[in-house]
Amino acid sequence: MESSTIRVDAHHLSAKLTPPDSSSPLFLDLHFLRSGAVRFRVSEQQPRYQPLDLLMKEGMEEGGST
User: In angstroms, rounded to a whole number, what is the distance separating the alpha carbons of residues 24 and 2?
Assistant: First the structure.
């Protein structure tokens, strides 16, 4: 059985949790926004992190502005 791990920084918490009755882990991501809102995601696959400049470029391309 794998152990659970947790990583925390100022505005982000990520955790890998393995439930006792399951063989596959769950991945939890919490993002704390300045507005006071909290965004979260739970998935069965480990999230892939991309550099901020790549995310901004993709967002501009999807939005239609350059």
Answer: 9
Cα 17 → chain centroid: 13
The ranges assigned to domains in the chain are 5-63
Side chain identity at 51, as an amino acid letter?
P
Cβ-proximal residues to 32 (8 Å cutoff; 6+ apart), any chain: 11, 12, 13, 38
Beta bridge partners of 31: 12, 39
Would you say 45 and 27 are in contact if contact means Cβ atoms under 8 Å apart? yes
- Taking only the tens place, the pLDDT of each residue in 20-64 is 887 788 899 999 988 889 999 888 876 666 556 665 665 556 555
Taking a C-beta distance cutoff of 8 angstroms, is the pair 62, 56 a contact? no
